[in-house]
Amino acid sequence: MTMKENILIVEDEFIVGNDLRLMLTKAGYSICGIAASVDEAKAIIEKSKPSWVLLDIFLQDGSLGTDLAGYLRQRGIGFIYISANTNQHILEIARATRPYGFLVKPFREKDLLIMLDIARYKHQNNLQMAVQREQLMRKQLQHIIDAPFELADRIARIPGALNTFVPFDYFNITIAGKRPNTLDEYSFLRSGYEEYQPLEQTDLSKSLGLERSLVLPAKIELLEELQSGFQNEDDFTHWIADKVWEKKLSAHLRLHARLAIAVTLPDGSAAVVSFFSRESEAYTEEQLALLVKMENTICQLLAQIQQKPDTAFSRVMAKKRAERISPGNEAPLFEGIIGRSPVFLHILQSINMVSAAPSSVLILGESGTGKELIARCIHKQSPRKNKPLVTVNCAALPSELIESELFGHERGAFTGATDKRAGKFELADGGTIFLDEIGELPIESQVKLLRVLQEKEFERVGGSKVIKVDVRVIAATNRNLDKEVAEGRFRLDLYYRLNVFPVELPPLRERKEDIPLLAQHFVDKLSEKLGRSVTTISPEAMKQLQVYDWPGNIREMEHLMERSLLMTSGSVLKQIILPRSTGEKPVLQTSSIEGNRIKTMEEMEIDHILHVLKACKGKVCGTGGAAEILGLPPSTLNSRIRKLGIKKDFHIRD
């Protein structure tokens, strides 16, 4: 710590608050006050402007520390929760406010100081990314302003320049017209990665069942009233309740959130740039703040558009209609990643945003959703792309060899160590290490991993030489780490160290619009691999694919498509060979109730794995094995079997 940081403690128990004050003062921090309520905290913040706030969640006057989170974010003040409550519901509420850390009472002085170090690291990363975003956004908008584009091209480039920083599904620019009671509007619907379909207002009105001439007065009136701001979910529903056009549009396009920047152009005309999203919690204070910083640049750009000839947007429409858009044209950036559904396009946008940054990334998602592919993509787009990407499957590492695998060992360090060996972190120096299935790492190994992430140094097993490394960490898990933390199986400090930039991959059942694209991709890929002549999928087979729930996600789809192609002759795939449990034979059922007691999630998991193993006659690997049916890598399933103690109860064969 190079400077004396100012900290506010929000804690209604005097003894706890005073203990925190003594710990922090001893460590060199300055304490600007101890507040017992949210209101008292706000008064101290306005007066003392702290660098950090330690924030209890439940306060005796009935106020909640989580209610202070938005207030702190607006002022750029980092905060860490301190609470005795660690159940999953509380953790989810706290996580939604995006804190920099979470400490569970009681905690040691060391835990507090480590959490503050982690918080500072995350805050610095966030600030660095915010500066980079601001610089890049200004540069892209200025390029549109300065470059000798035709006006139609200038308008067409705006959605792509803005979507990188404020993702949207529907985008609109509204400017007060030169003539009284008129508006100039430019609307785009995102149709793919970096693909934006222009929407002509008259055609859009017809598709909504509205006459543009009838809704125009209300839109003109609204333009004069609009202010910069954003609405998510319930606030958005309330905002559109009395607005005919916006309500119809949102229902038609399934929109659930909105962010807008309202500006006044040099000639006094009012203008609004609006972003709408299908995600219910799409927009943040940071995005709004970024747009506010860009206000002058946005005004310059809109002033150029305001001078357009009436045919400019018509030329954009004509140009876009003439373009033949090919599915998968995102391949150069996202090789092997297939998808054009709105939820998946948001993921691609996140990947594009974080790739250039040095931040740690935590990829969350069910087994088979493509976490390793996403990690490879982030590495390939990063400045480290010419350095190694080293993958570690944490679930496959025997507990006694984890330290040796990660950090290497010296000759003679343990029985069998006949040679000196470099570990995975050493091999990844200058590049990226991908820690797959990080949720399976034993708690004792998590401590050693945390030290490397904090200090960027380690010693080989059996050695004393300190080895320094420069490694970017990408981790992935199919486990709910909030729940793992709450139940003591995953370290809270490690979780916050890894979770600088989370990327949450949706299961295939939540992006079924992508199934036809994925299915055709696997037909093309596997036909060549298997020497088949299949080129198309019949409507009946496609219906099978779309009604199935895909518990094993994309990995399961690839396996089932391969099996189906092996059973197909000719050029048309007519039937998909789905697992027996989908209805061809009776499904084994497991009950969540035993006597009068509801089973735990772990007991349910044991029951489910046992039922599948019995159906497979104990076979884990290969075609028809339990791993394939469950949509898991065999190494992951074997790890879960060992962890849950299933081998004691059932004869298992590989």
UniProtKB/TrEMBL annotation:
The species this protein was found in: Chitinophaga agri
GO molecular function, one term: ATP binding
Keyword line: Activator, ATP-binding, DNA-binding, Nucleotide-binding, Phosphoprotein, Transcription, Transcription regulation
Superkingdom of origin: Bacteria
Pfam families reported for this sequence: AAA_lid_14 (PF25601), Response_reg (PF00072), Sigma54_activat (PF00158)
Keyword presence, Disulfide bond: no
Record's protein name: Response regulator
4-aspartylphosphate sites (modified residues): D56
GO terms for biological process, alphabetical: phosphorelay signal transduction system; regulation of DNA-templated transcription
Sigma-54 factor interaction domain location: 337-566
Domain Response regulatory: 6-120
PANTHER family: PTS-DEPENDENT DIHYDROXYACETONE KINASE OPERON REGULATORY PROTEIN-RELATED, TRANSCRIPTIONAL REGULATORY PROTEIN
